Amino acid sequence: MPDEDTIQALLAALEFRSVSEVFATSGDSGAATWRVRHAGGTVAVRVFPPGHAAAVERERRCMATARAAGLPVPAIERIIAWQGRPVMVLEWLAGCTVADELATHPWRAWHQGVLFGRMQAAIHQVMAPPD
Description:
This protein is of the alpha+beta class. The protein has two domains: 4-94, Phosphorylase Kinase, domain 1, CATH 3.30.200; 95-131. The protein has helices at residues 4-13, 53-68, 98-104, 109-124; strands at residues 21-28, 31-38, 41-47, 76-82, 85-91. A hairpin with a 2-residue loop joins strand 4 and strand 5.
């Protein structure tokens, strides 16, 4: 995970104004991810390792396809290259992880399982874009 100076340099490169919060979230796909609140709203900023531009482009196409099919996928605001790394800025979708929901409300496990299964079924109805 990049240090504070590196994060501040990235935020400056993204031209975010009046940043009020930068919170590291759990990363995925090898990307470091932050929730950033700034004058323009709240976004997720994902920084991928160098050399992952093709994977980021594939993810962009998959997310666009899923979003067009009506799945709850965040909109991609922009993708840039920064210091040799792909950076994806996404709409922030508020919520919690399945693990957090189950830890907080274990009596909802059955219902959460049903919702999770329905979402998985909806995802599997969407054809992935070709490579």
